[in-house]
Design brief:
Keywords: Hydrolase. InterPro entries: AbfB_ABD (IPR007934), AbfB_ABD_sf (IPR036195), GH43_arabinanases (IPR050727), Glyco_hydro_beta-prop_sf (IPR023296). GO terms for molecular function: alpha-L-arabinofuranosidase activity. The protein is mainly beta and 483 residues long. The chain has 2 domains: 316 residues, Tachylectin-2, Chain A (5 Propeller), CATH 2.115.10.20; 133 residues, Trefoil (Acidic Fibroblast Growth Factor, subunit A), CATH 2.80.10.50. The protein contains 5 helices and 34 strands. A hairpin with a 5-residue loop joins strand 19 and strand 20. The chain is elongated, with a radius of gyration of 26 Å. 44% of the residues are buried.
Length: 483
């Protein structure tokens, strides 16, 4: 008997500690994830040299977007196919870790869609970060090799499942099942995006209907009757609801009444459904890529996802200068937004590079060759952003204004405009030290980072990298940055 009060006291203390621990954890999570003040979109831009890489855009209101990093890619894939599409941004529940997962695919390399679908990569590309701005090197995560006859792994997404404490990663794979070859959605479970469970079939529409793009959004207050909603491009844009990520899903409807489909229903044919909840209110936007017409993403909005009839068209939006292709949107806390904008938000001024001894001529690119010309048209061919050097501090690199992600670089001492391929050789060849002009100290000359005995100069109006040995060379190697 005398030990009973002690046991009760210990039990009370343990319960108090448990609730205190829960309260602290909850408060820390709230502090990490609230309030949301902005939005971050990860996307790719198309099948050009740098289009299948990671681009970011920022918005304050979720409708008007500004391209970050001057419209150039922020991350380059150097693994697998060396290209990525369909990036998804993933945040841990505590807000202390982030991942980007993306399709390992580069159509711009000459790969056909048939080869990509039937003999493509069965891995995803993964980046990891603890602050949303400093990212690991990309790595490959094999998710589809366990699927018999898998031809690819496309359009990945991931969502944290509180029921298991794991992330559910889901994507589309083209494979034969029951005698029918088509794209179906599969999933694996992971805690760290390094090791995964065996793949399991997640969505199969039956008959011959394939499905590639699907994305889930959580409705914390279960507005509309469900905790989770998913939108899938399966001939229509089908919306479903569930209270469990890996449980049963109920079909809510599609968007045919709005004249929107994924092809089966005709009308405005779209793909890549991308959810976004507006900060501070129970309202959602569903962004749809109007790929059939090339008009890019459009949003429709709803305050109750329990019926597709609640969606309405939104016309007051702006997606910025670059074309946005299938991606994802992450709501940002004030701290996250501050870090992202400090890293990529500043816009570098636009400059022209004026010749010292032919002052009516400016450095310009034409068909990716580089020379000096007067009266450049279009004007953007002679406009560059002077960026921090790709290869080292205290240096500069010249990024094209109308080809973001392309830089002036020398190749066998000849100058070209080329896409950053992420290699150390490219970075070195596109990096220069800005020094006092060889012909006039009030102007500038640009010493090659990779060949310090050579300078950027023009010769017969063509740009090249030369050793400078006489007065003519000094004049040819002298320039001025001007607006």
């Amino acid at each position: 008997m005398p030990r009973t009060p002690t046991r009760i006291g210990a039990l009370v203390a343990a319960v108090a500690l448990l609730f205190t621990s829960w309260s602290v954890t909850t408060d820390r999570r709230a502090e990490a994830l609230e309030p949301f003040t902005g939005y971050l979109m990860a996307h790719f831009t198309g099948e050009h040299a740098t289009g299948e890489q990671i681009y970011l855009a920022h918005s304050r209101d979720g409708l008007r977007w500004t391209d970050l990093n001057n419209g150039a890619p922020v991350l380059l894939s150097t693994v697998g196919t060396r290209g990525v599409r369909d990036p998804a941004l993933v945040r841990s529940p505590a807000g202390d870790r982030y991942w980007i997962i993306a399709t390992d695919l580069r159509i711009a390399s000459g790969t056909s869609w048939s080869d990509a679908a039937n003999r493509g990569s069965r891995s995803l590309v993964v980046w990891e970060s603890t602050d949303l701005v400093t990212w690991s090197a990309p790595r490959l995560l094999d998710v589809a090799s366990g699927i018999p006859g898998a031809g690819n792994a496309w359009a990945p997404e991931a969502i944290y499942d509180p029921a298991s404490g794991e992330y559910v990663v889901y994507w589309a794979t083209n494979a034969a099942l029951n005698g029918v070859t088509k794209h179906r959605i599969y999933y694996v479970r992971t805690r760290d995006f390094r090791s995964v469970s065996s793949p399991v079939l997640y969505i199969d529409r039956g008959a011959g209907q394939g499905i590639i793009d699907t994305q889930i959004v959580e409705s914390p207050g279960s507005v509309g009757g469900y905790r989770y909603y998913r939108a899938s491009a399966d001939g229509h844009i089908t919306v479903e609801g569930s209270n469990s990520i890996l449980g049963s899903w109920t079909t809510i409807g599609n968007l045919s009444h709005m004249g929107i489909s994924n092809g089966t229903g005709g009308g405005n044919v779209v793909e890549g459904p991308m959810w976004m909840q507006f900060n501070g209110r129970a309202e959602w936007a569903l962004w749809l890529d109007q790929y059939a017409t090339g008009r890019g993403y459009m949003p429709i909005a709803s305050t109750n996802l329990g019926s597709t009839r609640n969606f309405r068209a939104v016309s007051d939006y702006n997606l910025g200068a670059t074309r946005k292709r299938h991606g994802s949107i992450l709501n940002l806390t004030a701290a996250e937004e501050g870090r992202v904008l400090a890293k990529w938000g500043a816009t570098s001024p636009v400059n022209r590079i004026q010749s010292y001894n032919f002052q009516d001529r400016y450095v310009r690119h034409a068909d990716f060759d580089v020379r000096i010309d007067p009266n450049v048209s279009p004007a953007q061919d002679a406009q560059f952003r002077v960026m921090p050097g790709l290869a080292g501090s205290g240096t500069v690199s010249f990024q094209s204004v109308n080809y973001p992600g392309y830089y002036l670089r020398h190749n066998n001492f000849d100058f070209v405009l080329a896409a950053d391929d992420g290699s150390s050789a490219f970075k070195a060849d596109a990096t220069f030290r800005q020094v006092a002009g060889l012909a006039s100290a009030s102007w500038s000359s640009f010493q090659a980072y990779s060949h310090p005995d050579r300078y950027l100069r023009h010769y017969a109006y063509q740009l090249r990298l030369d050793q400078i040995t006489d007065a003519t060379g000094r004049a040819d190697a002298t320039f001025r940055l001007t607006s």
